[in-house]
Design brief:
The protein is mainly β. It is built from four helices and 71 strands. The strands form 18 sheets. Strands 1, 2, 4, 5, 7 and 9 form a six-stranded mixed β-sheet that branches. Strands 3-11-10-6-8 form a five-stranded mixed β-sheet, with no helix packed on it. Strands 13-20-19-15-17 form a five-stranded mixed β-sheet, with no helix packed on it.
Length: 903
């Protein structure tokens, strides 16, 4: 057993140990041959404009690239290649024991790029930085977009349009510099308010106004970006509600071929879209017919005497003239009308050969001979109503109602109630019918399509078709006895002003209606006593009436670009029923929700531009859609103008995490990171309002983020502190903020010192109990180089002792110690190595012990005094950081030691 050590030796060892455990924090740079300096400009892309930015950082790095401190002040020379872009001080001083030094970068009005250089003792480092942007060319993979709210326009109206650039993925690009867009167009129909639009630097789009002229037709608008070779074009259809043509309609379509037959010939004016409209001037009319006698001559005489005209402010003219149609049993009898500047319009009608009078179905042939029984069938009766499918608001229009019977083909070969057969008109029978037919070389009238048949009789009609019958007496829609009832389904849309009458021996009457300001479908119904009822639905329209207020985004049909503060740009445009810009007669107000913005379209305008901002809904990075609602505000509000539109939201910026150093010293406490607000292309963005961020560390046991940072108004960036825990490893620093995309960056902690490694030599796998055993310890650095003067502290348990407990390595990096085991079956001990300029190393070892079986009780043991020293020494070493290293053989040095023992 070893001799007991005096207490003074323990105290001396304790003092020696305390000195050896001191970690060298500051370095004498003159004594270090392998170090470097690190220059960091963070962020390295600054906004343009005269300002002083504290974004320069200088570090001294060990040969492993980890920041270290200096034992004295270190002056570092600085230089900028182009001070007109950014200048720096001539010198920055890294103070003794400081972890870094910060210096300002001063920017001017000039944009561009420059390189900042730092020099120390012949060691040089540099970093390129950018101020604003001096890009003169756009990237090659962009798309030019031309955005229109509608492809339809009315003459003498205006609408906005926009141009912008996107990536191939559809991301809208913030212009790095002023981008000029040339506009090409067809001058006679429409033109933009400028031949060139400029997307200003830092903006996402440019917009202009397209004005339609007085002509109608199809035109185009083309946008060209010459520098990048991009272009895009869209067509625009320009129409008018002014009359451009006339239209003629004849009611009813079927009339008996008899003397003095009246027709309703209604001539209307239509616009370029074929919709009925009103004329601002008188339009003279001249009628003609395909049947010169008797119709054409009658029309010519009427024109000479009456000089028909569609009067100013009206949309039509009704001609009710009688024609002698006897012996004119024809199809497609044409009547036409012409007017200078408005062209020609035609329509046709047909005559029928056999007249049917009253509900008793009394037939009269073309020879005016009545047949009171022969070929009479029990027809169903009804009333047919005819008119125009579209009529304008605030105008007068006419409808025709006609007494009719319904053809039933099932009765053509039937019998009467008295058993006598029913024989149909021979010209209406098919060839296979026994009642008649035609020669083989002549096609039967009944076998022709209905449009081509001669209508000798009701039997020539197809099943369920209507055939006119004549009234036996006058029938009226007013007076004491009302035999005709005319109703409108909506008096606000169309009011009956004259129900008309049916004169004896005639089949139809005429109703006059008056439309109001309201538009929409309306049904005119007619009921005739003893005959039946019929109806016709028409649409009251006003092509200039506002039908919609549309939300138009200048950054895409379904896309909204939000800036950092939640602002976004939109247009409100008034549209008519044909989706054309509508010129407002009065100023109208609209509420846009949920932004709660009140927007006006002024009198005489078709649209308005506004910038909205919402505090009522989030513009979060995970939100991709937002729905905007628009509704009119004020008296006599048209609630049909309410509208809604869902947009895909695109944040226009992101919050970027930058680090002056991606590898920091785990023992340094003054570490910083930077967050910067940039657009999606990486250019700095200055917020209108302060930007509050959320910054996190993925591994708090490595580094911790104590405080979130706020980017103030007027600058694009801010710093935040990073706290180290002393642990070595990696962590991801992430930053996010409302309304922007978040980003992350990896940070690594490391030690500035080389790690010491401990190995043993000559240590047997098994030793005997109570017998001292000497072996050698070796200390190397991470490069396998021996470290001399390293202090080794050896810690054992009560079952063994190693002497000396503290030892230093010799010039070859080794030291000899003696191990004595008191019991088995194995023992363990721990070794801690320290040396100036190195990170401490730690390792543990286990040795098997060849020990006899115990024949005494543990209570008989007496603890020696030196065991107490070991316990006290172990307490003094609490708190020392332990690291594990691989075991290494030192064969050569072990052989030298064995040779010395033999001598």
């Amino acid at each position: 057993m070893n001799t007991k050590k005096p207490t003074i030796i323990l105290l001396a060892l304790t003092l020696l140990l305390a000195g050896n455990l001191h970690t060298a924090a500051a370095q004498n740079l003159e004594a270090l041959s392998d170090y470097s300096i690190k220059l960091a400009i963070s962020p390295d892309h600054l906004e343009s404009g005269m300002a002083e930015h504290p974004v320069g950082y200088l570090y001294v790095l060990s040969k492993h690239g980890v920041p270290i401190t200096s034992t004295y002040d270190v002056p570092v020379s600085l230089n900028s290649d182009d001070p007109s872009v950014a200048s720096v001080p001539k010198k920055a001083i890294l103070k003794a024991n400081e972890e870094y030094v910060s210096f300002p970068v001063i920017t001017g009005e000039k944009s561009g790029k420059t390189t900042i250089t730092a020099s120390l003792n012949g060691k040089t480092t540099f970093q390129k930085i950018e101020v604003g942007t001096d890009e003169s060319h756009l990237p090659d993979d962009l798309i030019l977009e031309l955005n229109l709210p509608t492809s339809e326009m009315h003459v003498n109206s205006e609408m906005p349009f926009s141009v912008y650039l996107t990536t191939m993925d559809g991301v809208i690009v913030r212009a790095p510099n002023d981008v000029e867009i040339l506009l090409d167009h067809e001058e006679s129909l429409a033109s933009p308010n400028s031949e060139i639009l400029t997307i200003k630097q830092g903006q996402y789009y440019a917009w202009g106004v397209l004005s339609a002229h007085e002509r109608t037709g199809n035109t185009f608008l083309r946008a060209i970006q010459e520098d990048s070779g991009l272009d895009v074009a869209k067509s625009v259809k320009i129409s008018s509600t002014l009359p451009t043509a006339i239209k003629l309609s004849i009611f009813p379509e079927l009339v008996p071929a008899e003397i003095d037959r009246q027709l309703n010939i209604f001539v209307t004016v239509v616009d370029s879209e074929g919709n009925p409209t009103k004329t601002p001037d008188d339009i003279p009319l001249e009628f003609f017919s395909s049947e010169q006698y008797p119709i054409g001559e009658t029309l010519a005489d009427f024109g000479k005497s009456e000089k028909p005209v569609i009067e100013k402010g009206q949309f039509g003219y009704l001609l009710q003239e009688k024609f002698s149609l006897q012996n004119l049993l024809e199809n497609d009898i044409l009547i036409g009308v012409t007017s200078p500047g408005y062209g020609t319009a035609t329509d046709t009608f047909r005559t029928v050969g056999t007249s049917i009078e009253g509900i008793n179905n009394i037939k009269k042939s073309m020879n005016h001979v009545f047949d009171y029984g022969f070929d009479i069938k029990n027809y169903e009766h009804t009333v047919g109503v005819y008119g125009l499918t579209h009529i304008p608001s605030n105008s007068s229009a006419y409808f025709t109602y006609q007494l009719s019977v319904i053809e039933d083909d099932d009765d053509d070969d039937g019998t009467r109630p008295d058993g006598s057969p029913i024989t149909i008109h021979p010209e209406c029978a098919e060839e296979t019918d026994e009642s008649g037919g035609s020669d083989d070389d002549v096609e039967s009238n009944a076998n022709l399509d209905f449009e081509d048949r001669t209508l000798y009789s009701v039997d020539c009609m197809d099943d369920e078709m209507l055939y006119p019958i004549q009234a036996e007496e006058n029938q009226y829609s007013d007076g004491y006895v009302q035999q005709i009832s005319i109703t409108s389904s909506d008096a606000d849309l169309a009011k009956i002003t004259d129900g008309g009458k049916i004169t004896s021996s005639y089949s139809f009457g005429t109703t006059e209606i008056s439309t109001g300001q309201k538009t929409g479908p309306v049904t005119i119904s007619t009921s005739v006593n003893g005959v039946g009822t019929g109806s016709f639905t028409t649409n009251v329209i006003n092509t200039l009436e506002q039908k919609e207020v549309r939300i138009f985004s200048p950054t895409g049909e379904d896309s909204l670009i939000f800036d950092r503060d939640g602002f976004f740009d939109v247009f409100l445009i008034a549209l008519d029923g044909n989706e054309r810009p509508k010129v407002m007669k009065e100023t109208e107000k609209y509420l846009v929700t949920p932004t709660n913005g009140l927007v006006e379209i002024e009198k005489g305008a078709t649209f308005t531009f506004t910038q909205l901002r919402s505090d009522t809904f989030d513009v979060a990075i995970e939100e991709t859609r937002v729905t905007l609602n628009v509704e009119p505000i004020g008296e006599k509000t048209n609630f049909d103008l309410k509208g809604t539109k869902t947009f895909i939201t695109q944040p226009s910026s992101k919050i970027q995490v930058t680090l002056p150093l991606s590898k920091i010293n785990s023992e340094h406490t003054q570490n910083i990171g930077i967050i910067q607000l940039v657009d999606l292309q990486g250019n700095p963005v200055i917020p209108k309002l302060p930007v509050k961020s959320k910054i996190t560390s993925s591994v708090d046991s490595i580094v911790q983020i104590i405080d979130d940072s706020i980017i103030p108004t007027g600058t694009s960036y801010a710093t935040f502190p990073i706290k180290t825990t002393g642990s070595i490893g990696n962590s991801m620093i992430s930053a996010s903020a409302k309304g922007v995309n978040g980003t992350s960056n990896l940070i690594t902690t490391a030690s500035s010192q080389t790690q010491l490694q401990i190995f043993t030599g000559g240590l047997a796998s098994e030793i005997k109990v109570d017998e001292p055993f000497e072996f050698r310890l070796f200390v190397d650095d991470e490069n396998a180089d021996s470290v001399s003067g390293a202090s080794l502290k050896i810690i054992t348990g009560d079952d063994a002792i190693i002497t000396p407990e503290v030892v230093r390595t010799s010039s070859d990096g080794s030291a000899i110690v003696s191990l004595t085991a008191f019991e088995g079956p194995d023992i363990s001990f721990e070794i801690i190595a320290t040396a100036e300029g190195y990170a401490e190393g730690k390792d543990s070892f286990t040795v098997n012990v060849d020990a006899p079986e115990k024949v005494f009780d543990a209570i008989d043991l007496e603890l020696p005094e030196w065991m107490i020293y070991i316990v006290i020494g172990g307490i003094l070493l609490v708190g020392v950081i332990v690291f594990m290293f691989l075991r290494k053989s030192k064969t050569d040095l072990e052989e030298e030691w064995e040779e010395e023992e033999e001598l």
